[in-house]
Each structure stands twice: as structure tokens, then as C-alpha cells.
Amino acid sequence: MDERVFVLTVTAEESGDRIDALLARRMEDLSRSAAQRLLEEGRVRLGGAAAKKNAKCAPGDVISVLLPEAEEVPLIAQDIPLDVAYEDGDVIVVNKPRGLVVHPAPGHPDGTLVNALLWHCGDSLSGIGGEKRPGIVHRIDKDTSGLLIVAKNDFAHQALSAQLSDRSLSRVYEAVARGGFREDAGTVDRPIGRHPTDRKRMAVTEKNSRPAVTHWEVLTRYAGYTHIRCILETGRTHQIRVHMASIGHPLLGDYTYGAPSPEKGLEGQCLHARRLKFIHPRTGEHVELESPLPEYFTELLSRLGPPI
Known about the structure:
Layout lengths: L3 E6 L9 H8 L5 H9 L3 E3 L2 E2 L11 E6 L16 E4 L3 E6 L16 H9 L23 E7 L2 H13 L3 E9 L6 E5 L2 E3 L7 E3 L4 E2 L2 E10 L2 E8 L6 H8 L24 E9 L6 E5 L4 H9 L5
Parallel strand pairs: 7-15
Antiparallel strand pairs: 1-4, 2-3, 2-4, 5-6, 6-7, 8-14, 8-15, 9-13, 10-11, 10-12, 13-14, 15-16
């Protein structure tokens, strides 16, 4: 594979951002440390000249990145602790911590949930997800915590994927959104597709999109923020984050979809996969699991002040 050049233009909202942070935010699967390595290697140009790692960006600046040829990294088992909420011969449900990437990708070759699952399950994972995503039926973002279901064999994977399609696999999230809501509950029914100019983002768009429906309800109101519950009717990439931003309530800490800067000491969206309900692929029994709010979430709620 030949080297590739990625070009982006700095927006007004990104004025003053450090170039390494901006690249990590705008380029899919690129971590900040990986962006810094590209800068150190002279692969990043700002306004036609080699960029320094601590360079600040101005609106209209053009950044070009020469990406090296991707190297195939073997998938290895790693002894990474797992919080297992449920497990049998067909299915394992894990309570993913905030900050853990689900599967290997450029910038994250190992140290992922998949590496941990390979250690825990050995060869007992479905192959349907592909070489880099064995057993993965659905994903949650790196900074999203909570319940995620994994198939141990192809039979279970096919059955669970079908439940995602027919919506019999239910996922309920809790989040903290910016601003106050006029209503106590509502539904966002807007199609989601890849952002037209930023490949790391999704967007509400009619072009090359798929239907997306999120039901939300208010749990607790605070000054400037609201603790909400979100129920997914569909499962698009970044769905809750995109939908809530589209109605003027981006999730607290979500730089990608609207948070202007770090808030309340939190970097990355405040979002937790709280409940998971599915039909067991072999027994037909209904399985319902709940994950308590993690410490980062409960501490954040305490910093929001008294409910109103």
C-alpha cells in the first residue's frame, strides 16, 4: 500500500487548538501520541512548512499529513482485566471501562477489549466479526463505558446480529447532556451518515445515510446540564452523541459534537451503556443485565450541584 496524504482545513471553532490535539480529533483512529509521532517525523505540514508539535492553528490553515504505509500487526492475547457481567458457552457480556478501545485499529494496535477477550476466551470467539473483531456483535466508543455483548461462536453471532436488526436486542444508556430540556421526554428521528468533510465524525444528513431513532427522557435536571436516559431503536455509529447534538444538547465532554472545551474535569463524552436485554441464542430465554453507574459518572453528577 502506498503512502497517503490527508488534507484538512482548520475551522473557526478550532482557532488556537494545538495541532496534535486537532489531528487526533479530526483523523479517524489516530491517537494524540500517534499524531505527535507524525509531527516529530516531519510528516505534517502547516501552511506548506513542516509543523512543530506545539503549533497553534488558525482558521483557514491548511494541514497536510503524509500517512505512512499501514503495517499489519498480529492480533495477540493480552492479560487485561475484564469485568464480566454474564458468561456461558455462547455469550459473554462485559462491562467495558471508559478509555478502553474495543478492537485494534491504526493508532491502537493492541491493549484493546479484543486483546483481553482473546486471553480470557482463547479460541472460543466467533469469526464473523473478522480477524480484528472476533466475536464483536456491536461496538461502543472508547470513552463510553458499560455493557457490551460478545459472541463466542458463529451460531450465537448470527442470532444476536439478527436481534440487532429486528430490535429485540435492547440497549439503554445514561448520559449527561449540556443545557436544559423543555420537555420531560422525546424522540429524535433523523438519519445519520458520514460527515461530508470530516471522516472522523458522523452527522445528521440525508446523503448516504441510514435511518436512526433515539428515545430520550429526563432523569435529573441541574443548572446548565441534564442527566438523561437514552433508548436506542437503531444502532448507528455515534448515534446518541450525534442526535443529542443535533437538538442542541451535546453530551458533556464531547469535543467531537459540540462541547467547546473540557468541562467539569471530563475529557470525552459522559455516556454509559446502563442496561442490555437480549434473547439467549440457544435457550430462547430473556436475559436482562444492568451495569451500575461507574465512579467517574457519579462523581461528575456530584460536581453538577444540587438538582433543580
